[in-house]
Amino acid sequence: MTPTTFVELTTTQFASLSTTQVAGLTGTTLGGIGVVNEALLTVTEVHGLSPVQIVPLPATFLGSLTMTQIAAVTTAQIGKLSTTQVQGLTSNQLGVLTASQLGSLSTADIVVLNTTQVSGLAPNQLASLSTRQILAFSTADIASLTAVQAYGLTTSDIRGLSNAQVQALTPGTLMGLSANQIVSFTTAQLGSMSTAQYHAILG
């Protein structure tokens, strides 16, 4: 059956497909089933998608997964996502990912995240990222962090920030940092700050 054929299936017909039948579909066919039928994929079916099925999926397919479905995606599946596919994820989807799922994102994946996507990350999610992942955030992403989000940065993350990333932190964000976070800044990082930033961390 072609992708077009699956789009033409009624929701009842598509929902009647077994997990085995879904597992036998090619990634190209899955990518063309349509948003309505995509929403009918069960957690078990999403969890069972193979790397071969994941690779051809368009970014729009991934961006249309429900929160329940995206939570069922395995770390191995996330590890197979291309940067284009990662760009298709919504801020809400990123907001439900576990520490293990987030840990499967490569630094290349982190680099392509935009500020809207980053806005969906909670402090505990940021805390779960490795320092290497944090360093992959663009200066625009760093500048978009709220004071609440920045509270999730570990002391190692802060020490590892490049001067450009430090300079991107807004005074409002810096004012929300804890004392332990503030004393983690290196001399070089402090020297790179603007007067407004420096005043912010002094309180």
Task: List its salient traits.
203 residues; mainly alpha
Helix share, percent: 55-70%
- What distance lies between the first and last C-alpha atoms, to the nearest angstrom? 65 Å
The major pleated sheet works out as: none
Q: State the shape.
A: elongated
Q: Report the structural category.
A: mainly alpha
**Mean pLDDT rating:** 92
Are there runs of 5+ residues with pLDDT below 50, and where? Answer: none
Over the alpha carbons, how many angstroms does the gyration radius reach? 20 Å
SSE topology string = HHHHHHHHHHHHHHHHHHHHHHHHH
**Tally of individual helices:** 25
Please indicate the percent range of residues in DSSP E strands (runs of 2 or more).
Answer: under 5%
What's the count of strands? 0
Description:
The chain has a domain at 1-74. The mean pLDDT is 92. It is elongated. It has helices at 3-8, 11-15, 19-23, 27-30, 35-38, 43-47, 51-54, 59-63, 67-71, 75-79, 83-87, 91-95, 99-103, 107-112, 115-118, 123-128, 131-135, 139-144, 147-150, 155-160, 163-168, 171-174, 179-182, 187-192, 195-202. By secondary structure, it is mostly helical.
